Amino acid sequence: MHPLDEAIDLKLAAPGECMGATHPAYANMVGPFGGTTAAQLLQAAWLHPDRLGEPVALTVNFAAPVADGQILFLVRAARTNRSTQHWIIEARQGDETVATATAVFALRRETWSAGEARMPQGLPPADALERMQLKGLMPWPQRYDMRFTEGAFPSVFDEQEQDHSRSCLWVRDEPARPMDFASLTAMSDSFFPRIYVRRRRRVPIGTVTLTTYFHADSALLAEVADRHVLGVAKALNFRNGYFDQTGELWSPEGHLLASTHQLVYFKD
Amino acid sequence: MHPLDEAIDLKLAAPGECMGATHPAYANMVGPFGGTTAAQLLQAAWLHPDRLGEPVALTVNFAAPVADGQILFLVRAARTNRSTQHWIIEARQGDETVATATAVFALRRETWSAGEARMPQGLPPADALERMQLKGLMPWPQRYDMRFTEGAFPSVFDEQEQDHSRSCLWVRDEPARPMDFASLTAMSDSFFPRIYVRRRRRVPIGTVTLTTYFHADSALLAEVADRHVLGVAKALNFRNGYFDQTGELWSPEGHLLASTHQLVYFKD
User: Fold this and answer.
1) Which among A53, A245, B87, B238 has most CB atoms closer than 10 A?
2) Which residues are CB-neighbours of A254 under 8 A, at least 6 positions away?
């Protein structure tokens, strides 16, 4: 079983309640990688017997540090319409809420479609690039095969401020795993904090909220299979303890699979 | 009293409950403008006696059409930390949830700061441009003074598909009103649906979820006062019934006040 599938393997405890746990393969400096917490929150709605269709949007709020160990997920359909459904999900440890989420699921149908943003062109293919070095890093980045064309995780934190925080990379799960909503959700939090790329300075950071829009349905995700996808990320603004970052995940054929936005706390 | 202040004038009904109503000055085709609903949801947290600091992020999920009339807001601090606070808010009419929201509030402090995105340069000032024509439009756009430099609301729906959906405009409340979080929240939903700009075709649309990051604190918003701010909006992708749009709101001095993202349903 792939470690991501182990991480999202929630057990139904009662109607609207399921149990999960942090997974050591996705450990961060303290507690788990937020991407797997996000994937667990989405999975709690996905597993609900009343679920309608597939996710189109997910917002996760990281309310407090998640401790290693068990997590209780409370999940409730706040509204079910004919073709859309709105979920509220909470992650709890002991008596405390550690994360909240809302998700929109929908039944999609074929319509006029158009990509307006374009995938960066002229990049070398993944197999022409070297995989990112992982020595000394936490477990979670070791669960990704990342191959950067720009804006790599700094090999030294020399405090040389850069002009921008843009990154571009080929990325897939490691070990390889077929792309699905769980993988895409976790991957949308796999862009390193932009402040590290911009400042090459180690400062305490923490994502406070993450929103992902799923442009792909499961049929398009199945076409990606276990190949690398192209990730692009940048920040718009750093100001007084918070910065945003925005990312795109593209299929090798140039379909936008997800766009993702987050707001990150930093201490300077 | 400004109509926006009337619209967000909620009455405390019980601990964690307040009552509001739709406002005719912000009516949309059916029901109210989503921007005022978003501002009401934020205001419900803002008015709570346990509130900590100022908003840094808001996500609103438009779960169902809001009927003209009263709205009950249920508001709960899911988690309060030393410098951040996470809210869950629901808007109800009768026994039905019509919108859900999560908000992150924070006490901010001065840190290293840097704008990475730049405000578009070389644009004519607001007073050198004509205000958008409003003849035949719903009440809510009449509550804004919009002056476009690019990507105006189409004067005719001639179904001539455009290359892109980018818009750029100076915008302020009408009548003029000092900028604050309520105004900024509503304004973040004031960008017309990108599909109208792109396709010049009238199709049924509805925002399903809206996320706004507040880069400004109240001191910076106070500096804007009642002047126009610069809005920029674009779509990334239109696919099978949903498209996203992303916007920025800039102070006249070039500070990013808010970045905002939404996912919109469309019927083709």
Assistant:
1) B87
2) A115, A118, A119
What is the predicted pLDDT for the residue at A136?
87
What predicted TM-score, i.e. pTM, was given to this entire model? 0.98
Interchain CB distance below 8 Å, A266 and B111: yes
Q: Which pLDDT tens digit goes with each residue over B85-119?
A: 999 999 999 999 999 999 999 999 999 999 999 99
Q: Specify the pLDDT at position A262.
A: 98
- Between CA A118 and CA A178 the distance in angstroms is 24
By C-alpha distance, which of B158, B164, B171, B166 is closest to B132? Answer: B171
Q: What interface predicted TM-score (ipTM) does this complex get?
A: 0.98
Mean predicted confidence (pLDDT) in A225-252: 98
d(Cα B146, Cα B32) in Å, to the nearest integer?
A: 19
pLDDT in tens, A141-153: 999 999 999 999 9
* Contact residues, chain B, for A216 at CB < 8 Å: 239
**Burial class of residue A139, CB neighbours in 10 A (0-12, 13-18, 19+):** middle
Which among B232, B213, B229 is positioned nearest to B221, based on CA atoms?
B229
The CA-based dihedral angle spanning residues B250, A241, A186, A90, taken in that order and rounded to the nearest 10 degrees: -100
In percent, the amount of chain A with pLDDT more than 70 equals 100
Contact B114, B57 (CB under 8 A): no
Tens digit of each residue's pLDDT (9 = 90 or more) over A26-65: 999 989 999 999 999 999 999 999 999 999 999 999 999 9
- Separation CA A55–CA A73 (nearest Å): 17
pLDDT score at A65:
97
3-state secondary structure of B217: coil
Q: What is the pLDDT of residue B136?
A: 87
Nearest to A259 among B57, B164, B244 (CB): B244
Q: Is the peptide bond preceding residue A178 cis, with omega within 30 degrees of 0?
A: no
Structure tokens at B244: 């996203």
Amino acid of residue B19:
M
DSSP E strands, B81-190? 84-93, 96-106, 114-115, 144-150, 167-173
Sequence-distant (6+) residues with CB within 8 A of A57 are A103, A104, A211, A212, A213, A214, B61, B208, B209, B263
Contacts of A215 in chain B (CB under 8 A): 236-237, 239, 242, 244
CA distances from B167 to A17, A115, A125, B148, B192 (A): 44, 17, 34, 7, 9
Nearest CA in chain B to A267: B111
Task: For residue A104, give the nearest of B88, B110, B209 by CB distance.
Answer: B209
- The dihedrals phi and psi of B253, each to the nearest 5 degrees, come to -85, 0
